[in-house]
Amino acid sequence: MKRITTLILLIFCSSILANQNSNNFESKLRNAIDLVFNFKFKEAEQNLLELSELKKSDSRPLLYLSNIYVWKFLGDKKKSDFEKFEQYSKETIERAENNLKNNSSDVWAYYSLSSIYGYRSLMYFMNRDYVEGLWAVKKSMSWSNELIQKNPDFYDGYLWRGIISFSLHQVPSTFRGLLSIIGFNGDIKQGLKEIQLVSRKGDFAKVEADYFLSQFYSSSLNDNQKAYELLVELSSKYPDNELFVYSTAVELIKLHRLNEARVHLSRLINNNSIEIKAIKELSYFLLGDCFFYQNEFEKAVENYELFVSKHNQVQYKPTAYFRSGVASYFLNDKSKAKNFLEKASAIESKNSEDKFYQRYAKKIINSNFDERILRIFYGWNLLRAGKFENAIDIFNGLLESKVSNDLKIVAAYLKGLSYYKLNDSTKARRFLKETLRFETKTEIWAKAFSYLYLARIEFNAKNYQAAENYIDQLMKLDDYDFENSVYSQAKNLLERIKNNF
User: Fold this and answer.
1) Which domains does the chain show, CATH number per domain?
2) What is the pLDDT of residue 168?
3) Structure pTM?
């Protein structure tokens, strides 16, 4: 009888010890993941490597080791970070697949495979390896579907299916045809619904869901306020995550809250232990933008010059030089202005914003600094700073003077946009429509944006047929500045009309 009692006690104690060890592992894993999201990469990597050795039947430590190098590559685009991601992601896949051979109901193995293939697709697309990216999309969707089928209440499992579904509808039509051949069709409404589900009920994937959701609200759904609210919550929980702080500043700029954005950007610039150098470099650019939009031109030039000297990539340098040129003109230094504008024109960039400002740099030089052109950008700054009434005064002055149709169409569009920002849909509609009557060969972008905002006005008023009609007119335009961006926004709006959300 004593032997039986002793045996029962041993089994009971072993069970308690196993549960304690399991709880201890889970607690340490969560702490390590928090370190990843708080950009404490060295400490996080050390802890995750230890956890990976401690429990070789769990693929999650390897998944979040991979995640470290996604964050790093997202900013600095270093080859070494991509290679490190490749290493850890392959180890994640191998371990998760082996775990499933031993236990076909291991939901964390399914989750790891769904997530790691999702991140592999993101990394390959950023690295312009579209074949591998497409293959990773297919694998991520497959593992996500299996996981959800096995356990519909495992909410983390919806993350990558939602991201992929939301994103695929936005790809170019030629690529979309290829995706449909292999069985993929984007669904923006369902994708958004699934990401929101993870945001509300997710556990390990909630942070990622919130960040992706913020970016979709910002870039695709034209809701910068919701994006900002999500980012504020993320930044308060992970104050050392430089990307969250930077993204918050971006949304504040879009919301015309420039002084608040400056606080966030200055914080990043003054951080001497920053993990992702590109974020600090780009913060100089955005801080320059804040000062430029507020017509504080000396400080704008100072920050643009710091950005250009520190950033080793071409993107945004033509824009920085152009704005420095305009700022120098309004500081009464025409010689310096010309020098900056010539530098803007000389750089080869594929970025649409850079190309736009390069075209205007040449236009200003060729016009011998026609002040009417420069007044457009002065007024545009007032608009971006949230001084909409003052901006309207500038655009009225241009529209009442003898200027070309090219300048009139831009002034009329920006005047209509100012009224849109003032929530005066009647006047916004009136002046955006006025834009459409001007003929132009070079400023078609202003007409395209006018159609887009007219469609948004009708959408907000629930005049869906009128909104569709404006989008149809927009789609007939081609070969203009910001074409891909306008097209993508119009497609998103059309999807919202068709799917009623």
Assistant:
1) 1-133+143-151 (1.25.40.10), 153-220 (no CATH), 370-501 (1.25.40.10)
2) 85
3) 0.93
